[in-house]
């Protein structure tokens, strides 16, 4: 939660994050990719900006410092990098969450990922229902789970015909939800809504 502070510039990382989320959402919907020109600057600006504003260790959850920014980068990037290496998501999705983490820290990033996973689950169910493949998809998932539990060779439950969802968009929406939550619960909301 942002600290009580009348200096709006303190929230610079949230402005940068908003731009990255809009650009990432657009490119994931339009091109099914989140490009390095979106994610790498976010990581670099997050690390450098927090080092300048918060020093090495930082002061709080907004002025993270270099250590807090690096922790956010690790929490956002590493778990999704493993999912990318396993073939479950695209590399841009992992780099996007790394940028979110570098800009906002590990606590915000965990919340953003959880919201993003929830949005992705809703999107996946909606696509399965719309394409009328719910039972077939659940059957493939059940068979794969049985193979994993029985220590046999697991297979990928997805087929070439399996519907896809824009997971990067889900992560952007989840990060946006986390951002709105921070702003609504913090002193910024009082300034916007009440004028003080």
Characterize this entry briefly:
By secondary structure, the chain is mostly helical.
| E-strand count | 0
* Poorly predicted sequence stretches spanning 5 or more consecutive residues: 192-196
Give the amount of beta strand, in percent: under 5%
Q: What's the helix count?
A: 8
- How many strands, which pairing sense, and closed or not: the largest β-sheet? none
Kindly report how far apart the N and C termini lie: 17 Å
Q: Which structural class matches the secondary elements?
A: mainly alpha
Order of helices and strands: HHHHHHHH
Radius of gyration, whole Å: 19 Å
Mean pLDDT: 84
Helical content stands at: over 70%
Overall 3D form: elongated
Oligomer: single chain
The count of domains is 1
Report on the architecture of this protein.
The chain is an all-alpha fold and 196 residues long. It has one domain (8-129, 166-194). 73% of the residues lie in helices and 0% in strands. The protein is built from 8 helices and no strands. Helix 3 (65-85) packs antiparallel against helix 4 (91-104). The longest helix has 26 residues, at 106-131. The chain starts with 11 loop residues before the first helix and ends with a helix. The model is unreliable at 192-196 (pLDDT under 50).
List keywords for this structure.
196 residues; mainly alpha; elongated
Helix-strand blueprint:
Blueprint: H1 12-31, H2 36-54, H3 65-85, H4 91-104, H5 106-131, H6 134-149, H7 167-185, H8 187-194
Helix pairs in contact: 1-2, 1-4, 1-7, 2-3, 2-4, 3-4, 3-5, 4-5, 4-7, 5-7
């Amino acid at each position: 939660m942002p600290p009580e502070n009348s200096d709006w510039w303190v929230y610079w990382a949230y402005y940068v994050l908003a731009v990255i989320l809009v650009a990432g959402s657009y490119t994931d919907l339009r091109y099914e990719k989140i490009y390095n020109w979106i994610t790498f600057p976010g990581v670099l600006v997050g690390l450098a900006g927090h080092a300048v504003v918060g020093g090495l260790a930082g002061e709080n959850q907004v002025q993270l410092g270099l250590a807090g920014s690096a922790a956010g980068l690790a929490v956002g990037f590493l778990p999704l990098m493993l999912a990318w290496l396993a073939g479950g998501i695209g590399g841009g999705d992992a780099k996007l969450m790394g940028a979110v983490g570098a800009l906002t820290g590990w606590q915000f990033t965990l919340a953003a990922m959880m919201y993003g996973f929830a949005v992705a689950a809703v999107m996946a169910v909606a696509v399965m229902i719309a394409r009328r493949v719910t039972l077939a998809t659940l059957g493939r998932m059940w068979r794969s789970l049985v193979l994993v539990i029985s220590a046999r060779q697991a297979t990928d439950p997805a087929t070439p015909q399996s519907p896809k969802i824009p997971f990067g968009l889900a992560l952007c929406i989840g990060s946006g939800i986390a951002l709105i939550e921070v702003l609504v619960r913090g002193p910024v909301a009082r300034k916007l809504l009440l004028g003080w």
